[in-house]
Structure formats: structure tokens, C-alpha cells
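Replying to the earlier thread about multi-chain prediction with a worked example.

Input:
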Amino acid sequence: MKKLNIRYFTLVALLCLVVSSGFAQDGAVLPGESKYKEPTTKMWFNTYGKIRVSKRLFWDAQTHFRFEETGSVNHIGQIAQIYNRHALGYIYSKKVNFSLGGVLRINFNTDHESADRNVVPEFRIWHQYQFAQEVYRAMIYHRIRIEHRWTQGFQENSEYTYRNRWRYMLRAKVPLNHHKLKPKTLYIAPEAELIMQSGKTVVASPMEDLRLTTTLGYILTPRLTVAAGFMYSMGQDLNNGGIFKQSYTGRVHLYYSPDFRKVKNKLPEIHLND
Amino acid sequence: MIPIQKNYLLVLAICFFCLSNTLLAQERVEYRGTLQVDSFTGDAIYEYKIVDKDTILDGPFQLKRSSLEALLKKEDISFLFKGDFKEGSANGPWRFQFGEFQSDSQSKVVDYEYRVLISGTQEEGSGQIKNGEPDGLWTYEVSKIKDSEKEKSLFKSDITFENGVPQQNFQIENEDAILVGRFLRNGLAHDEWSSYDVEGVENAESWIFEEGVLQKIQLIDGGETKEIPVFDGQAEAYEVVSLDARYLKVIENTLVGRSRSAVLNGNLPKLLAANAAYYQKIDGILSKLGTADFTPKFKVQLPYYTMDSVALENTKRIIETYRSAEAIGNSLLNNSHLNILKRSDADARYYYNCAAKIEEDFLSPIQRYVELADQDVLAFIRRDTFIASLWPKGKPKTLVEVASDSLGDKKTFILPNADSFNFVGDNLETLAQLARYAEKSLETIQKALQARLTTTADAATLVALEENLIQQNQLLVTQIDTLTDLPIAHTKALKNIETLADASLSTYASLKDQKEKLEYGETLKSCLAELSALSMTITALPTQTSEIDSLYQDAVWNPFMAVVMDEEVKKRLTTAFNKVLMPYFLKKATDELNCENAGILNEEIQQSTQRMRELRTEETKKLERKLRREKDPNIILQLLNVQPKKADQ
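Result:
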């Protein structure tokens, strides 16, 4: 009986392997070896706001404008998405904070030959857990971001599909002209982010994106920082896990963190745990 | 049976009575009360006995003082001396504590006790004493105390003694350096004594002894080693002496040139001197209480050069002549009227410069010989090499050349009988001749100036005034000349203050009419006081501005970096202060300063720095709006509400 069970199990496992390596989504055939698409070029202009609203809470407000190439123009040929990401953040300590909020993303149809809709919305709920560490003169950051997203295609009456995204980012910020991160400091920020996804439509393409970025930033004031960098990313095509998309993206960032609280409320600014 | 027992008891009782009577004469008595030892007065508990009508301390001893009232009021100076005496000599374990404490007057109750936190310094010396001398390990530590806890150690020495003689290895350290070394069993310094910078071993200093004779000194400065030979061991005779200030004086005068200052500024002599001073403190106390010898007795050997009767006679002559010449020189150089006169009278200036030159070229070097004689260490110095080292650039000539004016024109001075002096050779006779020439020259100069100094300075008030002016000017010059590390603009302003003071004194000197002189002198007096105050204010400015800059910083948590950063606040205020007022003040002090506006400027600076401190916490929105793009310093001063009193107010 036991022998039979093992045989049965081996058979099922083998079958699964053959099926999953042969087919991806809805009968998409996985190639014999992985294929890499030609990289596309993109350009992102991102603003990041963290607006202090109370001793422990801040309003996370991000607006991103993402462009991509057209046939003739690299990087900024056409608008691809506009992001509106908002959340309420909780400062647990100087080094640890959490956020919970929503995203409204406007997706533009970048396929010129398509006769479908030009613009469709996408909705997300996201929560994030960020931990910072001091390492010598640099800071390193671990960011775990979980997103629940509802997307739809550009076709008329396209159904919303639900997916989860699991993101982990490791980033360092190394001051270049001072011994620590302070105003008037130029810093370099290498980062790596792995984005996995899950959901009914995700069959053999769990790795959505691997982003490798290096940014050069400048802290103008404690409340204003600018940065620019370059990113290489690659990830599995949702419809066929054997095919990898690639892209080169230029990124320009503006970080601002105003504090509109009254002076007397600002006083215990740094003494969060006292 | 019973009667026998009774008799036996009776005999025993009689014996006991007799014995106790003889013992009673030597019985120890306890004293409790106030006692003063050296400069320490406190509450004492001790035991003593009377032997031949003398009070001999015998038994436990304690003297202490501390005052809570003094502590809460301002500061308390406390001490505790605790140990044992045996037959008048300190014996057994001893502890000496000296404390200087302040408190913030805050108290709290803990377990039915009131507690007050104290800050200050605590000194503690402890170890065994045998017959009044240290025996075994002695530790002396000075600690900085903050809020009743030891914050850091300022000084520590560990020395092992045997019957008062230091033994084996010892260690002395302060905040900056550590000294380690060792002794032979007879207390002679031996082998390498090394001191290291606490910060790192790149800077070290080693004294290498051979049975007490200092062979060489090794200096390691920033990784580079330099060896300075000291005594080569070739001297005919050696004498054992204590390693104390006198010994260091001999070393100082045995070394020549740059190595001399390098060694003397080193850590080793400083650490030894500090340790000796702490031991001296304990010795002072113990020797007042009974027989004691608590000096550390570090022994070394020095070469000994016998002084014969001729040498002694010559030395006596040199000292006498030097003292007489020095007195004349000082009376001339410190004469306030001559100091004023030399600004306007070319002859007076010439004679003054001659006296200064003779003082510098002849008397200062001879002074070193006289100092050695005063310290009674001449016998340890090799005289010929020492005398040769007094004038490294060659001995002065009988013809003294000085600048007669500020343009550098030279004028000379020579005694008519200069030929009868002979400065050849490096012996005591030469030294005596040099001293004599200096004395005679200064006498001649004094005579030449006599008439000038007595005829023009007959008004006593004028003399007093001049003394005051010279003193003030001297103070100002010293104040300014000793400054280093100031920004160029500040230094320029200070130099201008010095120039203004000097020019005003010259104007005063050129006045002929006494009444006019007196009037101008009085104004000049207050001017110099104001200039001195202004120079102090300008000197303090860099520190004050950086204090103000840090006052106008807020700690801000940057959520993107997760770090706390300093943010400049009320920027318009700091910009107006740093970019407009500061340059304005310094420019005024450099280009437009005179006796009338010096006081006003000083007040403007002081008031504006004070206002900046106050404005940090005040509501300044309106003021900041008004300061926007304001470049006129006078308007900014008005806006800051700076109102110096006018000179006539």
C-alpha cells in the first residue's frame, strides 16, 4: 500500500512538472530556455512627500509621472502611468515606521496600434514596513511593501483581476562629502528591490520585477532632498514565465517633508520614546 | 583548704593592682574634638599617650571635615585622613581624601535618606605606612565626579615602596599621558622610563637610565624617533640625588638647543612633578602629626664637578654684579616716563633700546647661571659647556648696536674703557667680565638719562597717570599679541586697536604743555580702557558667533533618511547678524576706529549678540519680514533694538 502511494505521488509530481514547464498561462507554451525581450527605456519623475501631522503620524503623499519610449524617442517618448500613492504613516521610532494607504494609478495605453481604450484606472491598497540601520557613516534601509492590486486591461468591459505584490527593498545611503547625512550632503544610494507577485492569474511568473538602481542625491535642507539615478530592471512576463522583460529607466526624485504643526507641538521632535 | 585559697587570691589582687598602676602611666587616652593639621581643620578622633610630658599619637587616628551647608550654598571643601599611629609614627593602612564639590541643590529621598548629587573633584591616596614611610603599594588618584559618579580619572599613580624606597615598576598617568618605569632595589631609576600619549603611541618619550644615570632621552614624534644623549658616563664623580625639580633643572641646563624645550615640554617631567606635589601634600600632613618622611624618594645619579674656592669666589662676584645690573636695567625699562618719552625723544629712545639690548644679550643668559646658583645645583653642571651654551649664536660684543628709529637706522653704544674687557673663553672669569660690562653700561645709560627723567617728570600726578597709561597699553598689547587662531578680519581689527593705542600715546608724548598733557592723558586713560574692552569683545566674537549659530539650529527628524538633522531657523536673523552686522563691526574697528567711537562700537557688538540670544525664543515673524533684504547695518541695529549709550550720555 505504502509503495503504491509513493508511486502515485511521484507520478503526480512528474505530471505537474511537465505541465508547468510546458505551459504558462492559459496554454502559453514555455520556451525550452528563458528568453529575454529587448530592453525598453523609461523615465520616471517621482515626488515623495512625508507631511508630519502629529507627533507619531505623517501623511505619505507620492505622485509619480512615468514615461516610456515611443518608436523614435527613447525614455520620454510618451506618458505611460501617473501614480497617486497616499498613506497614513506611523512613526514607531526614529528608525522604524509603518504606512497604510491606497494607490490610484492611471495607466495609459502605449500601444499605438491598439484600438482599445486609451486610459484605464488601477487601484491598490498598500502597507509598508520600513527599518533603518546605521552602519558606520552610512544608513541602510529595509523596506517591506505589500500591495493588493486590482488591474484591468485596455479592452472595453475588461474585468478587474486581483493580484498581490510582495516587495522587499534593500537600500543604502552613503554620504560622500560629509561624515554623516546632513544638509548640504551629497550621497550615493545603491538599492535592490525584488517584487514577487501572486494571484489566480499568476501561474508560472511569480517574479514580477527585480530592480537594481543607483541614485545620486543631495540633501538641500532637512526637509528637502533631490536625487537622480538609473535603474535596470527585469522580470517575468505575466503571461509566460519563460519570457523576461527588461528595461533601463532614468529616475529623478524630489523628497520633501514639511511640518505644518505649531511650534510648540514640534518641540519633542526627536524625543519620540521619552 | 579554704584559707589557703583566700590568701592566694589576696596576693593575686595586690599584684594586679600594682601592675595596673604602672601601666596607667602609659595608658592611651582618646581625644574627640577639633584639630588643625597644616591648613586642615576638622573633627578629630584619635588616641595618644603622654611620654615624658610629650603627646605621642598611638592608636587609631581620624580627621575629617565636610559641610552640607557649605555644599548647598556654594561649594564644600572636604577631607578625610584615616589610619593608625604607633609610638608617634604613622603605621598600618592609611587613607587620605580631599574633595571639592558643588551640588545643584536638588535633593531626593531614597530609603529614608535625603540624597544630594554632587559634582567636583576627589583626590584619594591610600596604602600602607611603616614607621612613617610608605611601604607596599601606594595609589594616588584624582577623579572628576559628576552627579555623584566618577566621570573620569584626571590623575593616577601606582608606586610600590619598601621602607620608603620605591621598588620595581611604577605607573603615573594623567588625562593626556601615561608614564611607566622601574627602580632598582636601592631606589635608583633604572632602564627605560617611557611616557605615551593616551591618544596613541605615535608620540612617546623615553628616558633611559643606567643605575640612576640618565644616558639618553628618546622622543618619538609622529612616528619619527629622535635620540638625545644626556650623560655619557665619563664624569669622574657621581652623586645620588632625588629626582625632583632641582634634578629637572640640571637636565634642562645640560641639554642644548631645541631638544631642551622638546624634553621640558614633554609629559615625563610634568607627570613626575604632579606626583611629587601630591606626595608632598601627604608629607605635609603626616610630618605635622609625628615622625614621617613621605617624599617618593625617586633616586638618580648626577655627575659631580667640584667647585674650588676660585670658582666659588667668581660665582659670588657674578651674582652680585648681575643683581646690580638687573636692578638698573629693570628700573630703566619699567620706568613709565621713559616709556612715554621714548616715543617723542630720539635720545631717550636710543638709550632705552640700548638698555633693552643689554638686558637681552648680556643679562638674560647670565640669569640662567644665577638661577642654577640659587637652586644650589652648580656642582652638577659642567661649567665650560654650559657657559658656551648660553650664547649659541656667539657672545655679545662691547659695541652694542640698536635701532634708533622705526626706519631701522642703527646707532651704537660702547663704554669708553671697552678695551679693558675680555669676553674670550668659556669660563667663569668670562662670565664675570660680561656681567661687569653690562652693569657698567647700564650705569652709564642711567646717568645719561638721569637729567631727562628728573627735570621733565616733576609733576607727581603726571607720573602716576603715565604709569597707568603704560600699564594699560602693555596690558592691551599682551592681550592682543598672545592671541592665535583668530580669523584674519578679527586679527586686522585687533591690530588696528593696538596701532590706535600706540598712536594716541605718541600724541600724548609729543605734547609739551603739562596741563594739556594732563587733560589729554585723562581722556587717553578712558580711551585705553575702552579699547581694551573692545579688543576683548572682538576676541570673543568667533566663539560667540558660533554659539549663536548653534543656538539657531533645530533638531529635525528627516523621515526619508531616518536621521535627526540640524535645521537652521530664523535664517533672516542669522543672515543679518553674520552677513551684515559682523562685517560692519569688524570694518568699523579696522578702518574707522577712534577714541570717541570705540566705546559705542563695543556696546553695539555686545548688545547685538545679547539680542540675538534673546530673539531665539521670541516671536520674530514681523522682525524677520522687516529684515528681508535689509543690507544697512544701522537699520538692522535699530530693528534689533540695539541702542548704545552715546559718549556724552
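Residues 18-25 of chain B have pLDDT under 50 and may be disordered.

Feel free to reuse this layout for your own posts.
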